[in-house]
Every structure is written in structure tokens, then in C-alpha cells.
Specification:
Among the domains are: about 90 residues, Rna Polymerase Sigma Factor, Chain: A; about 170 residues, no CATH class. The chain has 20 helices and no strands. The protein starts with a helix and ends with a helix. About 5% of the residues have low confidence. It comes from Kribbella capetownensis.
Length: about 425
């Protein structure tokens, strides 16, 4: 069964993208993809996984799509055209001999400017990364019902406006690329810190995001923000093995065994950072990658160059202001100038709606309050962080900090 699940993880996004491109209907593609996987769950445990599982799933899904269209008279006229699409030859190799990845076409479709900005990443995470609607909602810090409406709205827009499933031309690329990068990074973020479930990380998602970024980098080697995004993800993902203890619990950056960091990945990421920062003003991903490089290149936590990190956050907040960037800058200021300075900056962000449901904000405040020995306030903040934390390891970490704070309160009153 593990082999079957691995195949599904690998093939689902590719299958959905290919079917969406061939039939021009995301809802139909999702439905027949699910039906093909359900058929495989019945057949494969009995017959074994076929030699070409992706081909088996594609053939099954395509037949189900054609059967469904034949039964629907509304689509009768469309079927003849779609059948030609479904039976066409394999994709043509690109100039470097590699086959184009149809998932990238779907990424660009989902990032089309005709879609509302708030809908683009949500749709792609749902369709290509296979996240559930609640997971997508947590990734974007909105209620699940709101996210469900966004996804339906985006699909309806693609269908109604007949948005093509294709990679845009050079003239369209500057407008479309930032949306694609945001989507890839959102997939990575969910993989780096799972929004729910028993595991701290979803390595399959993180590695899928890196794989897609590598494809995009090969296709667009001169785009420095593509380079910056790939560098950022590599430099962060290099710490994956040290971020959890043997029991699956969260290990903070300051406590990580840096000998477990992937030095080859760090070297690759650091080289890409140089390229991303060369040739003009840096973009947001390049600056974030430079920050990640400073963390990775520090011999230990104590020798981290916090002054340089704060300076880079100053650059980042000037070119890409957001509450989350401001939160991260405040945390860096706390390391450079002390807990009181960091807490003052966090308190200035207390009215930001996005941060009210963002557990790292409540946790950062709690930790700084704890460091300042403002224990009753820290206890309240830890409780808020616990209520907002998504994955079980994150909740366990906050619970441990809350217990430490409560013991400190008891000791101080003894």
C-alpha cells in the first residue's frame, strides 16, 4: 500500500494538469482524476501496481472523462474537439530535449491575471499540490468557508472566460510570473511547516515545490526572482533533518544540530543567492534567500550576524511590506537589541487582522514576555498561540512553553 500511495502522490498533480489541459475543464479533470485513483485503489491491491502506473491512471481518467461527456448532451458538440485533443501525440520536446511539464501550464493558468489575486494561489494549492480546502485556508490565513468560495469562483472564471492552459509568451511573463512564484512558495511553506496533522513537515510538498522551481529556473534562467526563490527554498530545506527530534517534536533553530544540515544544498543555495542579487535591485525572494544564507553560514546560533539580518529585513520591508515580514524583523531586532525592543515592535502590529490568527505572532510575543519575566502576560499569549497552532508538533511545543511559564509563575509565588 505504501507503494500505491507513493504513486498517487507523484502522479496526481501531473494527471490533473494533463487532463485540465486536454479537456479545458478543471472540475471535470478533478472528478475523473479522483475516480481514476479510486479505481486504482480497488484494482492495484489485487492485480499489483502496473508497470506504467501514470499511464494506467491517465488512460482510466481519460476514458471516464469521455464517457461523462458523452452522457451530457450539453457537451455533445464539444466532445468531437476534445476527443481530438485527448488522442493527440505526446508533447514535443523542448530545445534542451526535456519534455515540458504540463503542471507548469496549469500553474500559469491558475495565476492568470483575469483571476482575482486572492484566488490564484488558492486554486493552485488545491488543484496541483493536492491540499485540502482547510489546509489552503490556513496557508492564506482565512476561514475555510471563504477559501471554498474563492476556489469555486476561480474555477468558474477559468471555464467561463476560456482561459487557455499554456505557458505565457515573453510579453506576458512579467505580469504572470510573480503569481506563479507566490504559488510555488506557498506550496513550500505548507511543506516546511504543515498547517495541520501529526507531522511538523510535509517533505513531499516541500520537495515538490523545489522540483517545480527547478523546472521554472531551467525554463527562465535569466529571471533573477526565480533564482532567488529556488535559493531560498534550498537554504531553508537544507535544515529539514535537524528541525525534528526522533519523536517528531519541533527543534528550534537555536537548538538544532547543524552537523545534520545538508551542506551540499546550502552550497547550491548560496551560489544561487549571489546570482539572484547580481545585476540590479534585489527582489523579495532574493533578499529572503540572503537572510536564510546568513543563518545557514553561521557557525552556531550565537555567532549569527543579527545586525546584517535586521538590515536585510529593512530592505525587504521597503520592497515587500507585509505584517509577516514586520513580525520576522521584530524577532530579529529582539535578538540584536534585546527582548524589550522586539516586543515594542510586535505590540505595534497588534491590530493587524492577519496576525490575530497567526500563531507565530502570539508565540513570539509570549516568548519575549517570558524573557522579560512578565509571566502572567506570557501565559495568556502562550494560550493564544496554543489555540492557533495547527500541527500536533507545534501544539506540543507551545504546550511545553506554556507549562514552563506556569512553573515559573508558581516558583515566583512560592
Amino acid at each position: 500500500m505504501d507503494q500505491v500511495e507513493e504513486v498517487f502522490r507523484e502522479e496526481r498533480g501531473r494527471l490533473l494538469a494533463a487532463l485540465a489541459r486536454r479537456f479545458g475543464d478543471l472540475d471535470l479533470a478533478e472528478e475523473v482524476t479522483s475516480e481514476a485513483i479510486e479505481a486504482a485503489l480497488v484494482r492495484w491491491p489485487v492485480d499489483g501496481v502496473p508497470p506504467n502506473p501514470g499511464g494506467w491512471l491517465m488512460t482510466t481518467a481519460r476514458r471516464k472523462a469521455v464517457d461523462r461527456l458523452r452522457r451530457d448532451q450539453v457537451y455533445a458538440a464539444k466532445l468531437a474537439v476534445l476527443q481530438v485533443e485527448a488522442d493527440r501525440a505526446d508533447p514535443v520536446p523542448s530545445a534542451d530535449g526535456a519534455l515540458a511539464d504540463e503542471r507548469l501550464e496549469l500553474f500559469f493558468t491558475c495565476a492568470h491575471p483575469a483571476l482575482a489575486a486572492e484566488d490564484r494561489g488558492a486554486l493552485t494549492l488545491r488543484c496541483l499540490a493536492g491540499l485540502s480546502t482547510p489546509e489552503v485556508a490556513r496557508a492564506f490565513l482565512v476561514p475555510t468557508a471563504t477559501m471554498a468560495k474563492r476556489i469555486v469562483r476561480a474555477k468558474t472564471k477559468i471555464r467561463g472566460a476560456r482561459i487557455p492552459f499554456r505557458v505565457p509568451g515573453p510579453d506576458e511573463l512579467p505580469e504572470r510570473l510573480p503569481g506563479v512564484l507566490q504559488v510555488i512558495y506557498s506550496v513550500f511553506t505548507e511543506g516546511y511547516a504543515a498547517s495541520s496533522g501529526p507531522y511538523l513537515q510535509r517533505l513531499d510538498l516541500a520537495e515538490e515545490a523545489i522540483r517545480l522551481a527547478r523546472i521554472l529556473h531551467r525554463l527562465l534562467p535569466a529571471e533573477r526572482e526565480v533564482t532567488g526563490l529556488l535559493a531560498l527554498m534550498l537554504l531553508v530545506h537544507a535544515r529539514r533533518d535537524a528541525r525534528s527530534n526522533p519523536a517528531g517534536g519541533l527543534v528550534l533553530l537555536e537548538d538544532q544540530d547543524r552537523s545534520r544540515w545538508d551542506r551540499e544544498m546550502i552550497a547550491e543555495g548560496s551560489e544561487l543567492v549571489v546570482a539572484a542579487l547580481t545585476g540590479g535591485p534585489a527582489g523579495p525572494y532574493a533578499v529572503q534567500a540572503a537572510i536564510a544564507a546568513l543563518h545557514d553560514e553561521a557557525r552556531d546560533f550565537a555567532s549569527t550576524d543579527w545586525s546584517q539580518i535586521v538590515a536585510l529585513y529593512d530592505v525587504l520591508i521597503a520592497i515587500d511590506p507585509s505584517p509577516v515580514v514586520a513580525l520576522n524583523r521584530a524577532a530579529a531586532v529582539a535578538m540584536r537589541d534585546g527582548a524589550e525592543a522586539g516586543l515594542a515592535l510586535l505590540d505595534e502590529l497588534s491590530d493587524e487582522p492577519r496576525l490575530r490568527i497567526y500563531h507565530p505572532y502570539a508565540l513570539a510575543r509570549a516568548d519575549l514576555l517570558h524573557r522579560l519575566n512578565r509571566l502572567p502576560e506570557a501565559t495568556t499569549a502562550y494560550k493564544q498561540a496554543f489555540e492557533l497552532a495547527g500541527s500536533e508538533p507545534e501544539r506540543a511545543h507551545v504546550r511545553d512553553r506554556l507549562d514552563d511559564c506556569r512553573r515559573a509563575v508558581q516558583d515566583s509565588s512560592a
